[in-house]
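We examine the record.
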Amino acid sequence: LRSLPPPSSGVCGWDNGPVRCERISMDSKPQGPWFSVDEFHNWVVARSHIVAPPDKAEEIWSCIKAAHSRSHRVCLTHNDLASQNILVDEQFNITGIIDWEAAAWMPEYWSSMFLPWDRKGWWYKIMRDVFPQYEVERQAELYIW
């Protein structure tokens, strides 16, 4: 998926339209598209309700700024990659991935993130182990969501 060329430099649904993603739409209508990753990041921060304690505010905003200032290419993303959407055989070889209706062109780190309520489970650990290069983005996501 990561090798497919995106239709634009923006963040958008698989069809170049709005993004259907529970993490960003909060069960409302699809959002976007955004013309660039920077525009998407600005929207995410503006929409969040970050309440930073005074003694942590600088640390939190510094982390978010560091994560969002890194260069991220746009990749086709499943957008709902979770254990229930991965089919395996008896030897645990992956045989298929289902539930593609939320697929979108997202920043490359997006697949390795997690839903706000799934921050301590085994899936979180797997994503951290498989995508260690996105630890700064993961920490920023914890603050944002």
Observations:
- The chain has five helices and five strands.
- The chain has one domain: 12-144.
- The radius of gyration is 16 Å.
